[in-house]
Each structure stands twice: as structure tokens, then as C-alpha cells.
Amino acid sequence: MSEEKKDQLHEKFYAQSVEQVVKELNTSENGLSSAEAKQRLAVYGPNELEEGKKKSMLQKFIEQFKDLMIAVLLVAAIISAVVSHEVVDSLIILAVVIINAIMGVVQEAKAEQAIEALKQMSTPNANIIRDGHPMTVKSDELVPGDLVLLEAGDIVPADLRLTEVSSLKIEEAALTGESVPVDKELVVLEDGEVGIGDRVNMAYSNSNVTYGRGKGIVVNTGMNTEVGKIAGMLANADETETPLKRNLNELGKFLTAAIVVIAVIMFFVGIFFNDTSWADMLLTSISLAVAAIPEGLPAIVTIILALGTQVMAKRNAMIRKLPAVETLGATDIIASDKTGTLTLNQMTVEKLYVDNKQYSVHDDFANDHMAIKVMNFANDTKFSQEGNLIGDPTETALIQFGLDQGFDLKAALVAAPRVADLPFDSDRKLMSTVHQLADGKFLVAVKGAPDVLLTRANQILMAGEVRPLQQADKDNILANNKDMAQQALRVLAMAYKIVDSMPELVSKTLENELVFAGLVGMIDPERAEAAQAVKVAKEAGIRPIMITGDHRDTAEAIAARLGIIKEKDDAAVLTGAELNQMSDEEFAQKVTQYSVYARVSPEHKVRIVKAWQKAGKVVAMTGDGVNDAPALKQADIGVGMGITGTEVSKGASDMVLADDNFATIVVAVEEGRKVFSNIQKAIQYLLAANLGEVLTLFLATLWGWDTLLPIHLLWINLVTDTFPAIALGMEPAELGLMKNKPRGKNSNFFSGGVLSSIIYQGILEAASVLFVYWAAIKWPDHTAANMPNLSAEALTQLQHADALTMAFATLGLMQLFHAFNVKSVHQSLFKIGAFKNRVFNWAILLSFALMMVIIIVPGLNDIFRVSHLDLYQWAIVIGTSFAIIPIVEIVKFFQRLAGKK
């Protein structure tokens, strides 16, 4: 492979034979060597699509100033410096804007890192042959010449020239727009230009294998693939906004419009009624607008969501789309597969029926019983080099049972080696093996469906002796078979016979005149944590739904054991056949009656999801197969399986379970509820603070008071808004969070009493600040009696400086105290714990220190035009600021009282 080829390989591999392709790419049927693959990776680069150019830190920093309100603020700062000659004010405004921009860049970078980590988690794998051995590698490590193995459910990882196909069908809608899967063939297409849709000997990157299996040689990777060419055209396309971000932007626009109107009114009131200079009022009005608009809210919400995804990842829930975190918190229905999610996907023997008696696996019985020998002999399970069992789950369960009972299979096979077999098939429902015994005779071991095997048996092994099989024996056997089946056990029967010579391998002769040995009952046991997870989900008002391809009785029994339905609640179970008899309208009316769906196909899942959605529910749906993809996309939250799931199902999912465990879904729902609650807290905190600032300045302007300067508002906005708001996003889950009902499909960030809390708490903040300012003027610390040498004008200036400082300190400290109130909308602060969140504690201390430093430190207080306060004045400031906690506690108490009524 020469380096010149790195930009573009042969474009018409479909017109070449497999031998020509192998020769051109210098590969073989054993694939590449690891050393050669490493060299080619250096030449061709990773097999991944190039992303659009990432913005540099400088570009991100400059973009922070593109916001209209920031631009207006900068203009106002220039006006202030030129017209009012307030150079210090302008420099401080400029400094605050730059600090805000830096924080915005840091927040954006953190969110990008979290999203990038999530992208890495979802990188698909590819099954290939290298060094002559099958192995699994990350798809971005593929190079031209690699030999890729394909099977149903895979996403084709690169452009391939197929070398082997077995009923292979690939859906190429992403490239051709044709949704019908294409049957692949190994023909050579020599008719000149052949369209992508007609290249039946090729498989293209990002297309989906829907059926069969095959092999193919990688001919193009990365941006040289057909999908890479499309990606190249789309590289500079604008990113689409998520619904969550769009809602936040709409909220921001509404608030901006409302606050601009207030700022304009305040501007004209100040000029025409209070005789304030237009430059000062312009600066004050614009500063109010910028300080009051929560422009950092989208970034803060993104950070909270990203932090939530990291917590979920540690608990085996991989979130692929950030808004899914918030949607999870609203989940009403969790529709889950049974096998592997609610159960272990690991068949286990639970019961054994021999000698007309049913035994539990924990009971004592002879490990040399013929039933145990037959279930181990009539078995295709293999042992790996590490000693693990490899084979069909049912058969490995039988071998494991034998091992647990002390049955030495290897020694038994040495004594009676297997010399022939008649494999299982679905028509006769039996499997037989033939073993040569030491005396020259042959043992025929047969296992299969009880009803079929009983028709082939004419004797029974009872207490170590063989006797004729009576009707009473058959009745007992069938009764025990039914009993075990009703316990959700899969039942197999064992029988045998000993013949003098090697029998003919024909079912009619080999599997007749058998000696019945016993029944074995197996189950895919429910996960130990699944029943508890179902209980937690139900307490949270979430309805667990079980969907399975198993028989009705098995599904009903497992669902009852898990607590999804009550025992013998047959009316809560619906089969796929019964669902087929219902119209969509009839099913939508009856859907709430059913919690278990048995013998359903993946196609039924879409109908189930739509019916629940029509009932107004938010639905989370699990799936692992190719055909589950439509249901996963239809669901509000598609949940893919990380272990058993196909790449197609994972790609269609919003969340992937790393452990395929139902309990993990419930954990993710809890985290989703916590994230939504914390976003609400951040919004409540920011908007209440902003409303307090707006009302304070607006009313003060109407009354002709000069309460707060622009730099005061900007400093409070920077110091007391950002750090506590982000820290509130890290609050632990409130007690009883999973005992509340889902919040509903139509809820928003203002639901659950948040809007009313924002309004009354914002009014409370404004009233407190205005009261402190009024009190400081009414009962000043500096008086003519205390300072007789000062002129009246100088005395008034001192009194106003104190009042201004007290109002500024009260607004800042009150917001910090109020952050504790916001830890819960309705619960008492003393019940939820004030200091559990260490990040929050440090955020409050940092904000408090930054507030204090500009008031106390000489020089800084001159820049910010604040004065030193005495203990009496600090007592008023701190007392009034702290008062917001008991006042809100009293309101919460009456809210809880009203809620109980």
C-alpha cells in the first residue's frame, strides 16, 4: 500500500473481482497483520468523520460579546466615560463584562468536554479478522485491507467490498433514500457507472445489516467513504438547537423584552420626573437590563445536565443526548424487555422431577441418577480453555446443574464416549446422543419436550428399577409438567434406552421404546435488584410494563414474582395475537388495563408506545434488536442495551444501559428527577434575584431615590448569581424524591410552585432592600448632633453613602441567604439539611468574601463608592438579609399545610 493512495483509493471496486481487490489492497483471507494495520492507520488516519473546525478559545471569548445586551452595555460604558467623565465606572463595567465572558468560555468548555466524553462512549465496535484471528476493535481503528465480519444488527463500519454473503440484507436508506433492505450478492458489476443503490457487492459505512451475515474487505475509510463525502458537504452546517435549549432561549427572549420595557420606562421617569442626567439614566437603565437578564442560564443548565450525565455514567446509564436527562425525570411508563433486563438472561435449573417426586435444587438426591446423566449426555455444551461453558443457555444450565451436584461429566464421557448424535430440530422437538458403554452396548440419551417424549416412551425408571409406563404415571408426569410450567419454568423431559448394537440414526427407530427418567424445570431467574427497582418505580408513580416474546404463563409468573402484577392477574396480560385483533382506537382505550405483553414481536412495540403516548404518558422503552429501532425512536426515551444490544438499537436510543439492568433505568429516572429539580432551583434563584433587582431600581427611580449604582448591580450579578446557581445544580436528591408522582408531560420549569415562589420572593427581596435604604436615611448614623462641624450638604452625602452601602450589602447578602431557601421549593431547610452540599457551601463563602472585600478593603470601597459601616449598621444589614430565611420558612409551612388539606 503506497502512501500516494492515502487520499483516494480505487473508486470502482464493485467492478473488480474479489481476487483483484485482495491483490490491489495487498490483503488476504486472514486479514491484515497488526503491524501492517498500524502502518496503514498512520497513512490513512482514523476511520472517523471529520468534524467542522472547532472554535479556538479566542473565538469563543469574542463570541461572548456578540450578545446584544453586552454590546449595549459596552456602548453605555463608553458614553459614561465620554459624557459623564466616569472613567472608573467604565473600567469596572468593562472588567465585569470581561470576567463574565471568561466564565462563559469556561462553562462552554466544560459542557463541550462532557458532550465529547459521551461521544466517545457511543463509538461502535467492529468485528474483524487480524493476524488470522477474529477480534473486536473500535471502528475508528479500521484501515483499508481489513477483513470485516458482518451480522444482523451491525452498523457497517466502513465501505466494504463483500467477499462472502449468507442471506445478507443491508438497509442503505441513509445513502439511497430506499428503505427496503438490499439483497447482497458476490457478482462483479462490469457495466461502467453503477449507482450506489445497485452496487449489490458493496456495503457502505453507516448502513444497517438487517438480516444474514457476511464478510467484506475495507476499501475506504473516514472521509473517503460515501457517507464521508456527504459529511464533507455538511461540515459547516449550523448546529440544531435542542428543545430544552430552545425553551430556555425563548424564556430569555421573553424576559429580555419585559426588562427592556421596564428599563425604557425607568429611563424616561428618571429624566423627566427626577431630573437625572440622560447619560446617568442610560447607564443605569442598561445596567439594570443586563444585570436582570439571566444570560448565563443556558450555560448553567447545560452544565447541570452534563454533570447529571457523568453521575449516570458512573451508575451504568450512558446518556447519548443531553436533553434526555431532563426528560427522564418526567417518565410515567417504563416498558422493559424481560430477558436480560428484568432477568439475568442465564437459564438456571430450579426443579427436578424423578421417582414421582418433585425436588428443589437445594434438596438432596443422588447425583448418579439417570436423569442427570441424560441431561448431561444429550448436550452440545463445550468447555472453553478457561473452563467456562459455551453453548445454548438451556444446555449450559443443565451442565452447570450437573457440576453443582458433583456429576463428573468428563469422567463419564471417558467411560461412555459419544459416538453419534441426532441434533435437535423444531419439528420433532427432541435431541439424542449415542454413547458406547464398556460392555460393548450403546446408551441412547434423549431429551426434549415432555409431551412429545412421553409418546416415545413405554417404560419408566422408578426407584432404580425399570418397569412398564402406566397411564397413572403419564398423568403424574403431565401434572408435574403443568405445575412447573405455571411456575414460569421451562420444562424438558429426559429418557434413554440401552441397545445391543449401534442403532440407525433415524428418529423413528432411535427415539422410540424409551425409558422415561425425569423432568427438569429451568428458568431465567429475575435479577435480585429488579423486584426492588419495580417497587421503587411504583412508589414514584411510574408504571413498569413488561414486554416479552415468552409464553403467556411464563410472562405472567415472572411479572408476579417481580411485583409488576399481582399473582393470578390474568387480565393484566395481553398477547401479541390478542393485540392483532384490536384496532389502534380500541387498544388506546384499553391500554391502561395491561402491564404485561407476551408473545409479542418488535413491531408490536411501536403500537404499545403510541397507545401510552396517546394516553398522555411519557414513555421509556427498552430494546436490543434491529427491529426495536422504530419503537426506540418513537418512545420519549429510547433505552438501548449495552451488552446484548445491536449497534442499530444503540444508535436509535437516547440512553444505553451498560449493564442491561432494569434497576439502572430506575436509577436514571431518579437522577433525571434530581437534575430537573436542580435546574428549577437555579432558575428560581436567578429569576427571584433578578426580579428583586428590577423592582428595587424601578421603584427607587419612581420615588426619586438613588439606591444602587450600575457597578453595584453588575457586581452582584457576577458574584451572587453565578457561583450559587451552578452549585445548586449539584444539590443531592431531596428526601422522598422517588415517592412523588411524575411531573407530567405538560409541566415546565415554572411548575410545582416555582413561578409563585419567584414572584413573592423577588418582591420580598426588593421590599427588604428598599426598607433598609429608607431606614438608613430616616435614622442615619451620621447626624448633626454627632458631627456638628460638617455642612448640611456634606452630612447628607455621608448619610446617602451609608444608605447606598447598606442597600447594596443587603441585596447581595440577602441573595446568598436566599440560596439556602431555594434548596427546596416546599420542604423546610432544616429538614433537608443546609450544609450537605460542599460545593454550595464553598460557593456561598466565596461569594460572601467577594462581597465583603469591596466594602471593607480600603481603596476598593472608594472604587465601588461604598463606605465603611459600623456594627449598628451591619446589624441592620445582616438582620434584614437573614430575615428572608424565616419568612420563606413560614410561607413554606403554610404551603405544606394547604397541600395536606
UniProtKB/TrEMBL annotation:
The keyword Metal-binding appears for this protein: yes
Membrane topology type: Multi-pass membrane protein
One Pfam family matching this protein: Cation_ATPase
Cation-transporting P-type ATPase N-terminal domain ranges (all copies): 12-85
Sample GO molecular function, one term: ATP binding
Catalytic activity: Ca(2+)(in) + ATP + H2O = Ca(2+)(out) + ADP + phosphate + H(+)
Coiled coil region boundaries: none
Protein name: P-type Ca(2+) transporter
Protein source organism: Enterococcus columbae DSM 7374 = ATCC 51263
Lineage of source species: Bacteria, Bacillati, Bacillota, Bacilli, Lactobacillales
